[in-house]
Design a protein that fits this description.
The chain has 401 residues and is α+β, with helices and mostly antiparallel strands. The chain has 13 helices and nine strands. The radius of gyration is 24 Å and the shape is globular.
Length: 401
């Protein structure tokens, strides 16, 4: 039997047709009109509860890109206190994150930094031989300045003028010349922008002008690690590379986190070696939970949690307490475009002062501080004798049993 034709448009009639065919009726009482451009075959909406935790006390940097090379420069630093929205259904997450934020606030607050800003598309050109692939790689690297100028001169409506080509990295394997195009895209994540520009660059410049003619051009060939962990992004970055740091006082660790500095340091030692033993492309406890919750509340691309939650945490004893930090090398965030324009998401971004242009570096730093707050609290629960506090949190706040 031939399957029934599925209505694919997002007009009111098609939406109602899908709901009726599935026996759903109106899935929620939410007006779906503002969501019709967000995705295809819109049928309903999923409502996720949102908590607000904090305040996150932090010192954060102000940044800008300096032309012509897109060098990231810090232009100032300021203090702020922010309540952060978390959309999730994970029992204990909000309470734990709030506890970590409180411990840091009582210890002097977070310090956050943006280290780099690059978004990448990993293309590949398949040549007839290894020799041709090597020659192509050398030519592509030498052509970078000319490629930048060529892109700026094109009158092509498919090109984004906001995506700026900054660097290129090549990697030859047999007859394959892998190419990592590295872009900046302003306050948008830029996946669509740099994908369009990479395609035009591949087909209109490389395939037309290269001294050797590749047999095939592949727009994305997986050398970077888009929407998943990778060593390339862990080391060289993707999106915004951000670092958050705090120095926990012994008093805050004892009173708020209910553990000891030595226990936290012992856990860091054991956890780091566990990460090494597993081959984990991350050295952290539970960054994805915090990042996914902030992403869901603020209209970020949830598929990008895979890359964004790669983390490298560190801890050491210093005079006055325990210095802790987390580095997020591949944080893919936006304050304009995509889901950030949808109802609710925009309001939550406005709450934290991150809606619109010129706010993406602030937002990236808030995500990093929020992630470190959860790392601190969850680690403290695990560091107690027998990890009893961690067990108790899951037993008491783990939802229905």
């Amino acid at each position: 039997m031939e399957p029934p034709k599925w209505p694919r448009k997002n007009d009111a009639e098609s939406i109602a047709g899908r709901q009726e065919a599935l026996g759903l009726g109106a899935v929620t009482g939410i007006d779906l009109e503002p969501f019709v451009r967000a995705q295809e075959m819109l049928t309903g909406a999923a409502v996720i509860p949102v908590s607000v935790v904090g305040p996150i006390q932090l010192e954060l940097g102000e940044y800008e890109l300096r032309e012509p090379d897109g060098e990231l420069a810090e232009t100032g630093r300021s203090q702020d206190s922010v309540f952060v929205p978390l959309a999730h259904t994970e029992g204990g997450l909000s309470a734990s994150l709030h506890r970590g934020a409180r411990a840091v606030a009582e210890s002097g607050g977070f310090r956050t930094y943006v280290l780099a800003d690059r978004i990448t598309r990993a293309s590949c050109f398949v040549c007839s031989s290894a020799g041709e692939a090597i020659a192509l790689a050398g030519w592509i690297e030498a052509e970078l300045p000319a490629m930048r100028e060529w892109l700026q001169q094109q009158d092509d409506p498919s090109l984004s003028k906001f995506a700026r080509l900054r660097e290129v990295k090549t990697h030859v394997v047999g007859p394959m010349c892998h190419v990592l195009w590295r872009w900046t895209t302003g306050d948008a994540v830029g996946a669509n922008m740099m994908t369009r520009n990479s395609y035009v660059l591949n087909m209109g410049y490389v395939m037309e002008r290269a001294p050797v003619t590749p047999e095939r051009s592949i727009l994305e060939a997986n050398m970077g690690g888009d929407k998943k962990p990778s060593f390339e992004y862990f080391q060289r970055g993707h999106g915004k590379s951000v670092l958050a740091e705090a120095t926990l006082t012994e008093d805050a660790v004892r009173r708020v986190l209910r553990t000891k500095l030595d226990d936290l340091q012992e856990l860091a030692w054991a956890g780091t070696h566990g990460a090494v033993a597993s081959g984990m492309q991350s050295v952290a406890f539970t960054p994805a939970s915090a990042i996914a919750a902030v992403f869901a509340a603020t209209g970020q691309d949830l598929g990008m949690v895979g890359t964004s939650s790669m983390a490298h945490g560190a801890a050491r004893r210093v005079e006055g307490g325990l210095q802790v930090s987390i580095r997020l090398p591949g944080l893919e965030v936006a304050t304009i475009g995509g889901g950030t324009t949808l109802p609710y998401a925009r309001q939550w971004l406005e709450l934290i002062g991150c809606a619109g242009a010129g706010k993406v570096y602030r937002f990236a730093q808030l995500v990093a501080a929020t992630t470190l707050a959860l790392e601190i609290s969850a680690s403290a629960a695990m560091a107690t004798a027998g990890s009893a506090e961690f067990f108790r949190a899951h037993h008491e706040r783990g939802g229905l049993r």
